[in-house]
Design goal:
Layout (H helix, E strand, L loop, with lengths): L5 H24 L16 E3 L6 E3 L1 E4 L6 H4 L2 H14 L4 E3 L7 H8 L8 E6 L4 H15 L4 E9 L4 H4 L1 H12 L3 E8 L2 H9 L5 E5 L11 H13 L3 E5 L12 H14 L4 E5 L3 H16 L1
Parallel strand pairs: 3-4, 3-10, 4-5, 5-6, 6-7, 7-8, 8-9, 9-10
Antiparallel strand pairs: 1-2
Helix pairs in contact: 3-4, 5-7, 8-9, 10-11
Length: 296
């Protein structure tokens, strides 16, 4: 039987270590695997929002129509009933924001549902770290949630917003590390802000205005879609808004709404989308449109 000398051992170890180091460097330089295209068949399909790990339904119920007035006008009982019926149809995503003044309504609806099944996204316009910290604690009280699912910086428009709001981002990241928030992100209302959002590696989620008409959007659909593709490639969760354009469900007719759903689903880069519903008939029609678009 051969005997391995110390010199032989060191030489062998050196070769192995060198090979491992080279392998590690090669692996690090390889391009990341492309994110799988999003393919859905129904609005109730469950999707994972990128690296956030959050799972929710493709279709979400928004509460910001006319800055939330349309949903607030339902009253608490009417809103809770709408959410309950949406849940029965498989909708597991509620979208709100501080400026919509609908936290109280959302909290009331959550009491009627299995909390662990529902993804709740809210938003803040906080400008300082102190404001962000206070807002997070207020949101937790208003929504009666120990851990907020998602908090977005709301309606960013400036080209370098992520530099200007770095202290706020840091405060959100601290809240995430402390278990007060599961995911953070941003909604943008200019193409320059959207481009800046793509470059910010701290973002888990993006809420983006997208439809084939260029209605209430940052720029032409193809330009916005290109930024969305970059977000998707970075494994960010991408959520669409203003899918039907305009400020209300009736901004387009049924044919146009179908065209819009087909367009957004056809991108393969949008995980979910939120629409400001105020009637169960609107939800039912949209669920039908998603099935129709997916089958076509």
């Amino acid at each position: 039987m051969s005997t391995l000398t110390r010199r032989d051992f060191l030489a062998t170890a050196s070769v192995v270590a060198g090979a491992a180091a080279i392998g590690a460097r090669l692996e690090a330089t390889q391009p990341a695997a492309a994110a799988a295209a999003v393919r859905v068949k129904a609005g109730s399909d469950l999707v994972t929002l990128g690296k956030s790990g959050i799972t929710t339904s493709v279709l979400g119920l928004g509460t910001g129509t006319n800055s939330g007035k349309e949903q607030r006008d339902l009253g608490k009982d009417g809103f809770v009933r709408l959410v309950r019926e949406a849940y029965d149809r498989g909708i597991r995503y509620l979208d709100t924001a501080d400026m919509y003044k609908t936290h109280e309504l959302v909290a009331a609806a959550l009491k009627e549902l299995p909390r662990q099944d529902v993804f709740v996204q809210t938003k803040t316009s906080a400008g300082t770290a102190e404001q962000a910290k206070a807002v997070i604690e207020r949101f937790r009280r208003e929504l009666d949630m120990e851990t907020l699912d998602s908090v977005l910086l709301h309606c960013m428009t400036r080209p370098q917003w992520s530099v200007e709001r770095r202290a706020v981002i840091d405060a959100l990241l601290d809240a995430k590390r402390q278990g007060r928030v599961r995911a953070i992100g941003v909604s943008c209302h200019s193409l320059e802000a959207l481009t800046d959002a793509v470059a910010n590696e701290h973002m888990d989620l993006h809420l983006v205005r997208i439809n084939p008409f260029g209605s209430s959007m940052e720029d032409k659909p193809e330009k916005v879609a290109a930024e969305i593709a970059k977000m998707h490639a970075k494994n960010r969760g991408v959520i669409g808004m203003k899918i039907y354009g305009g400020w209300g469900y009736g901004a387009k007719n049924r044919k146009q709404r179908l065209e819009s759903v087909k367009y957004v689903l056809g991108l393969g880069t949008v995980h979910a989308f939120t629409i400001g519903f105020s009637k169960i008939e609107q939800i039912d029609e949209t669920l039908e449109l998603i099935k129709e678009a997916s089958a076509g």
